[in-house]
């Protein structure tokens, strides 16, 4: 071997070593790059990006830090939420910890709220849509716990755990349901202020478990703020985990597959009818296919939520149960702590997280509704009940009470009205203010408040999925700006280039007018999606707002019909010779066809207004992602 060959070999060896060293350094810095840079293709970007998803120009790709910071700050603030023992912590230390707690809460609120407005998930409209739900719910929940409900701190229920009661809990009837009769006697669903509660956590392990449990509890199961559909007695408790998994796998999963398959075929049909995929609209389908499209979308979402919640609960609750046992074992190792002794004996947290007693997301069958109100209050999930209550029901009902009071003053009937006690429903004064709302007064305010809050949150999510674009079918009956509007905007100093592009989009939409007009009959032209306000995300807000109006209208008509029936029955009984006070039972006021009319009305409202909802999902491509058309 010559000297030249040795030099070439040494050079090659040096180059190979340099490559290995470079690869090792890249492996070392990869974690730092992921934390510093936006989420890369290998982390969250789907292998088949959604071609219909166009993010807003002002938004940036979601990074790992911006995704982790809001829940992390929220969790750390929850760890510091329970009061500290005055005997173990000085006044200065408690004030410092309190300042840190509220600072973390404020950071969490700001970062949560920024998610749907400043960020997007590259290539996925569905995940970007979730940013709106997570941001609004997370920010609203943190604001509720740390500021609106302060100084009231959420408390966990203390379930009795003596030997006799443990045996009762383990007993099952012939259907496999648990029969814990002691809970029925101790915890009534109507008043959650008289329940027995655990003491506030004291040790570090207890605080960590407390914060984690509170963070993932949306319905308040095992907490003092439990939603009305969660009753801590034996009635709503569900079959064991094995039966829950069987229900999820053998009932919900085939139901979900069938609905998604139908929706997939309808999406392909809608895309095939439109030559321009960007302007595909539900209005391009015939009326009967639009009905099928909305129905398939709703059933798919119902089955997807129910399947996911049931499956995750059946697998995750045993883990929470073991975690609770571990926390209690750690508490037993510190018997000197007086605050811990209340939790050290038999565990109280285990029963609250027993999978056999964990309420399902939808304890009532999908076909059990008899009206539009019963569908939204009993059939659909109530995961966001607390947010709708605090930011929708309470303020709008209080406004409705003030409005009724004002008109009563004008008519001179104010003395007959009860005084308005807004402080009684303030979150700081009651763990679940919905339980103390006056029934029968300004009920329309409660209904509209819940639907308006839901509409705002879903509109923000839809806007994030659309990237700020409009989701409106051609032709649109409201969105038709003229040249006069353009000239007026120019004189006011607004950007002419913006309005030029705005009107160019209008001309593109108008180009598809003929095709859309010929796609369906004259009856099918009357689509509510054609009158949605020209605001990004207004489709879903319109859907929820119109459903709220329909529920109020349904209640008014129902009350009118029942009153007419009551008067007719009383008149008939008096004609038969009845004297004195005549009472009419609820059964006498009900006819066999009432439920049929209610179901037809509910399905018609949901199907017709649902076109406003699915329009944005078609335009953003969420339906393609949901039905796996992008694979």
Automatic annotation (TrEMBL):
Keywords annotated in UniProt: Membrane, Transmembrane, Transmembrane helix
Transmembrane segments: 60-81, 102-121, 127-148, 287-312
Spans annotated as Disordered: 164-183
Biased segments, Basic and acidic residues type: 164-182
A GO biological process held by the record: lipid metabolic process
Keyword Transit peptide attached: no
InterPro entries to which the protein is assigned, alphabetical: Wax_synthase
Keyword Transmembrane helix: yes
Single Gene Ontology MF annotation: O-acyltransferase activity
PANTHER family: LONG-CHAIN-ALCOHOL O-FATTY-ACYLTRANSFERASE 3-RELATED, OS04G0481900 PROTEIN
Protein name: Wax synthase domain-containing protein
